[in-house]
Amino acid sequence: MDKKMLKRTKFFLYMVILVFVVLLARLAYLQIFHFDYYWARAEKNRLRILPITAPRGEIFARGGEQLVTNRPGFTVSLVDLGQGYSKETIAYLALLLEMEEGEIRQKIESQFYRRYLPLRLKTDVSMEVVSKIAEKRLELPGVLIEVQPIRNYVNGDFLAHVLGYMGEGVVPDWAAEHWEKTGYEYEQGEPVGQAGIELAWEPYLKGEDGGLQVEVNSTGQAIGEFERVEPRPGCDIYLTIDAPLQSALEEALHETVEDLLAAGNRHAGEAAAVVLDPRCGAILAMADIPAYDPNTFSLDFPDLEKDPRRPLVNKTIEDHYPVGSTFKMVTALAALQEGAVTKTGRVSCGGVITRYNATKSCYRRTAHGSLNVVQAIQKSCNIFFYEMGLRLGIDTLAHYAREFGFGSPVGLTDIFGEKKGIVASREYKSKIYQEPWYPAETMDAAIGQSFNSITPLQLSNYTAMIANGGIHYRPYLVEKIVDSDGNPVLTAEPEILHRMEVDEAHWDTVREGMSLVPLPGGTGARLADFPIRVAAKTGTAQVVDREGIIPSHILFVAFAPLEEPEIALAVFVKYGEDRRGNMALPIARRIMEVYFQIPTE
Questions:
Q1: No. of H helices and E strands in the chain?
Q2: Where does 263-327 have alpha helices with state H?
Q3: Domains in the chain and their CATH numbers?
Q4: Strand 66-78 to 59-60 pairing
Q5: Peptide bond into 561 cis (omega under 30)
Q6: pLDDT (tens digit per residue) in 333-343
């Protein structure tokens, strides 16, 4: 071998040695100096912590009837194996799950800080979807099928606006702030209560998720199990709702509205009612129609949103309406307490009255003759209450209306969304129209017209206050909460928010007038054969829109038994005026028949 060849051989030998030294150095760097780091990465690729969703707490009626429970369902999830997700996988899943590719990518980006945890794309998927994913298992690395508890509303749309529904939508800031007071922290993207009890009591219903450490293969499928932490179910909630009473109420509302529509009243379609225990404020029944089925809410949402009858709105608390003649007990009590009239004081009704250049009439210009306050309530005489309104003045009238809780939320905190309504007053008119108040307007306000507008919950609370002598209890829906071991977490207690300072004799006078309403000669005489003594008041609120005068709203309030009231109720039928009489009254009758277990033919 010549010198030139020897030199070349030595050069290549040195190069080989150098390469080996570099490789050994790199190996030492990886295996010795950064062993912990790369070992952890390898373990992350091999091991996964799969969260086990805690069963959500169940919801029951006061009698133990199950209203909301959980059932097993399949969820499609993605797990990042370290290489991200292929376009083909995302496109296939978008088509299969009926999602937009952009929606899936957005979910992936929002999950970046939790990239090694499963990203749930869609819950409660069909067996057909599960089968198709299983068939392409090797072609879809990182795609998992998980079994999760799915919310099940046992009776469909029964009590829907009270119970609420679940979803993954954005949680309002005010709800998150409310939850924080209990120490609950919501993680974006997790299924969460979106309305009703599900939303307000989320921190109690949620439970604590568990976890499962598994070994996965190259496609992200679990091939071995290491450690398991069992989830802790959420708390169960028992409501004050009387299930048979609620069922009867919802059925009666539907029958009445369908009857009105069948009779040619094209404006009908909405109704609401609330039944309270006047001794404590417990809500025994709370219904409005139309509603929705929480089980299919996400699928039905586009149609629900377009429905002119507004099935997404809880009309018992989220909407307010003219109160009509059911307001007249406010005027009567104010007049008695302020000395504007005595129990025996009389006013002559000739069917028409003119004051301050305004001419007003009784309903259908009926001339009632000479009446005292008891008779005026019985016959719902407008002329009598016009006169009382003028004697009192709008400021005093508005004061007593507010004393009954009108114009403010009545205090329900078990579900959100309660509106405060409107009290007719000079302040309100000035704020809205920048105009002064005129005495003739007080006449309208005194019979529940003008700007007066209240929620059905306020109306039932007002009726309960008349029944119990002016005590405003906080209305409540949650009776008790128990944890997964059956231990009590919370038990509701009656809470007095306000007590009206009114002479007991005046309460008796007003109740006496209401007790005559369901008897012959009263506006609610169709209840004359009811076997239990009832105190009641009918109401009609005229409506004027671009079409002119359309069917009036119909109202009915009552409490029973007269001597020791156990229930107070308010019924509202939107555009429910009918030639057959007050269409809210049969609904109230049905409520009382079921509550007092009175046999029907």
A1: 20, 23
A2: 297-306
A3: 49-239 (3.90.1310.10), 243-595 (3.40.710.10)
A4: antiparallel
A5: yes
A6: 999 999 999 99
In angstroms, the CA 150 to CA 294 distance is 12
CA distances from 468 to 111, 112, 436, 511, 514 (A): 55, 58, 37, 10, 14
**What are the Cα distances from residue 133, in Å, to 93, 136, 263, 556?**
9, 5, 53, 57
Question: How is 509-533 classified by DSSP, letter by letter?
Answer: HHHHHHHHTTSTTSTTGGGTT-SS-
| pLDDT tens digits, one per residue of 425-469 | 999 999 999 999 999 999 999 999 999 999 999 999 999 999 999
Q: What is the mean pLDDT of the chain?
A: 89
* Residue given tokens 């039932």 in the structure block: 460
Residue that has been written with the tokens 């359309």 in this structure: 550
Per-position b or e across 303-329, b if 16+ CB within 10 A of its CB: ebeeeeebbbbbbbbbbbbbbbbbbbb
**Which DSSP string do the residues of 136-178 spell out, in sequence order?**
TGGGSTTEEEEEEEEEEETTTTTTHHHH--EE-SPPPHHHHHH
Helical spans, DSSP H, in 277-411? 297-306, 328-337, 373-379, 382-392, 394-403
Q: Are 569 and 272 in contact (CB under 8 A)?
A: no
CA triple 167-481-250, angle to 5 deg:
65
Q: What is the DSSP string of 406-443?
A: TTS-----SSS-----B---HHHHHHHH-----HHHHH
Separation of alpha carbons 124 and 110, rounded Å: 22
User: pTM score, two decimals?
Assistant: 0.87
d(CA 136, CA 126): 16
Q: Which residues contact 328 (CB under 8 A, 6 or more apart)?
A: 376, 377, 380, 385, 446, 447, 448, 537
pLDDT in tens, 26-57: 665 556 655 554 444 444 555 556 677 889 99
Neighbours of 333 (CB within 10 A): 24
Structure tokens belonging to residue 446: 């005194």
- Residue 76 Cα distances to 143, 225, 297, 301, 537, angstroms: 7, 20, 20, 22, 56
For 19-32, the DSSP string reads HHHHHHHHHHIIII
Closest Cα partner for 375 from 509, 552, 571, 212?
Answer: 509
C-alpha to C-alpha distance for 362 and 366, rounded to whole angstroms: 6
Q: Which two tokens stand for residue 46?
A: 């091999």
Chain centre to alpha carbon of residue 323: 22
Secondary structure, 3-state, 193-234: ECCHHHHHCHHHHCCECEEEEEEECCCCCEEEEEEEECCECC
User: Residue 453 to residues 250, 408, 420, 422, 459: CA-CA distances in angstroms?
Assistant: 24, 11, 9, 5, 10
pLDDT digits (tens, 9 = 90+) for 174-223: 888 888 888 888 777 678 999 999 999 999 999 888 876 656 555 455 55
